[in-house]
Specification:
Largest sheet: 2 strands, antiparallel
Number of strands: 2
Strand order of the largest sheet: 1-2
Low-confidence stretches: none
Radius of gyration: 24 Å
Length: 480
């Protein structure tokens, strides 16, 4: 094609676009302006899926959730449609090319994830509300496939590991500034902490959980002396903002999760063997069970409710006598256990808890924030929730993911030749551990904002295990 022909095509297409939009504008229709962006996005899907994945990472913190309360079906815009497109294209390419790195498919973490997804699929077929459960499974897949299966391929290039973290954190900082500004208009009081995070988050606990993911990462960026001083200084500023955000989130679960990940960090640095940790936990559980009545009696004497005062708010964590949030969480857990006892094998169906648990509440366990309408969220646990929705195997297969990922992270940390990879594996593992702990008290893996870092961090550990443990620092391309 000659240069003159190219110009004619360009100007012709431009004229058609302008004329078409002028016509639509005269009829009060503005959607034509989106055509170039849609075409650009389609080109990126075909020729640069990595770019679409990174773009999705960037827009996720800024995404807004739209929900149909009647059917319990919602979508987060624009992130989830982008994820769905990545998932669809990946599946089509897999069918066409019939190739995917077998080292990934044979990895213990991948096997654990596939087993979990297969069991979820089986319990969709037996679900009390099949439409809700089917949507739950599809949503789980459009989180897992882009940020784990496609993500691992992205993270083969080591530069993309830190690129992912910065692309998620930069818009998260915008949300933190937005939230702090809104919060300041309420005098930073605790009751308003649920309001000021909207419309980006449904409540302050999800906001705190996501910030907790990145605290270990940026702490490590500040402390690693091989990074340039300017990079460490910028990371310090980011860390200070993240810390401010999590403190004023008033999310006690987030604070506990950060403290837990710090405890794990100390254990790793002291080189305490994993089996000793398991033994101590087992002894602790046994001790608590033996003296459970004495512990409960002691806890019930704590009357400190949640508060704006930091120390009082910390003390309220163990208040199970008058704190409505703690009591409601216990109400949800006990309701989930009753649901499990009635359907221990297949459960009630993925995503159905909030629609079926109301009759399983006991009047003496209800609180001022209890509801019978299925409009106040889920079981508040990544472990007990699947127990009620997908039976015993629902919980056990999720625990399988937690265990295999943790062991992978520890293995990478111990075997990596590069100090950079050792550091990064530990930071990523600590970020995930913060969520594993948080998951005891809340569950947000049905949302894009928590699922993106959760599955991406999981994919990063697997990518480092498979592709980066044998590399020295000189072989890695470190851009800071």
């Amino acid at each position: 094609m000659t240069e003159r022909a190219k110009l004619l095509w360009f100007y012709g297409a431009t004229a058609i676009f302008i004329a078409g939009n002028a016509y639509l504008f005269l009829h009060d229709k503005m959607w034509g302006l989106a055509v170039p962006f849609v075409l650009l996005l389609l080109i990126l899907y075909i020729f640069s899926l990595d770019t679409v994945l990174l773009l999705t990472t960037f827009v996720t913190p800024l995404a807004i959730n739209l929900t149909d309360q009647e059917f319990g079906i919602g979508i987060s815009l624009p992130s989830e449609p982008l994820m769905f497109g990545i998932m669809l294209l990946f599946i089509l390419k897999l069918i066409h090319e019939r190739f995917y790195d077998q080292r990934i498919t044979r990895h213990p973490v991948t096997i654990a994830i596939i087993i979990n997804l297969v069991w979820i699929f089986i319990t969709v077929l037996t679900s009390e509300i099949p439409l809700v459960s089917a949507k739950f499974l599809i949503a789980r897949m459009w989180f897992v496939i882009p940020f784990y299966f496609v993500g691992i391929l992205l993270f083969i290039d080591y530069k993309n590991i830190k690129k992912f973290q910065w692309l998620y954190v930069i818009p998260l900082l915008i949300i933190i500034f937005y939230t702090l500004y809104n919060h300041s208009t309420y005098g930073f009081d605790k009751p308003s902490s649920n309001i000021v995070v909207k419309p980006f988050y449904n409540d302050h606990t999800a906001y705190g959980a996501v910030i907790a993911f990145f605290l270990p990462v940026f702490t490590g960026f500040v402390m690693f002396r091989k990074y340039k001083p300017s990079y460490r200084m910028i990371s310090l500023v980011v860390l200070a903002i993240l810390l401010t955000g999590i403190v004023f989130s008033y999310s006690r679960a987030a604070w506990v999760s950060v403290a837990g990940s710090l405890a794990i960090f100390i254990m790793v640095k002291l080189k305490i063997r994993f089996y000793w940790v398991v033994i101590v936990l087992a002894i602790g559980v046994g001790f608590f069970y033996t003296f459970r009545y004495q512990f409960m009696d002691k806890l019930e004497k704590n009357k400190q409710d949640s508060s704006t005062d930091f120390m009082e708010h910390v003390q309220s964590i163990s208040n199970i006598s008058s704190d409505a949030s703690n009591l409601e969480r216990i109400n949800r857990w006990t309701s989930a256990i009753r649901l499990f006892k009635e359907r221990p094998v297949f459960g009630w169906g993925p995503g159905t808890y909030q629609f079926v648990y109301a009759p399983y509440q006991l009047s003496r366990e209800k609180t001022i924030i209890s509801t019978n309408y299925g409009d106040m969220g889920n079981a508040h646990s990544e472990y007990i929730g699947p127990l009620s929705e997908s039976g015993a195997l629902g919980m056990l297969t999720f625990i399988g993911i937690v265990v295999t990922v943790s062991l992978t992270g520890i293995r990478v940390y111990r075997r990596a030749k590069s100090k950079e990879v050792r550091l990064m594996s530990l930071l990523i593992l600590l970020g995930l551990i913060s969520y594993y702990i948080h998951g005891v008290m809340n569950n947000f893996l049905d949302t894009d904002k928590a699922s993106v870092p959760f599955w991406a961090f999981t994919g990063i550990l697997v990518a480092m295990d498979l592709y980066h443990t044998d590399k020295s620092d000189d072989e890695l391309i470190i851009s800071v």
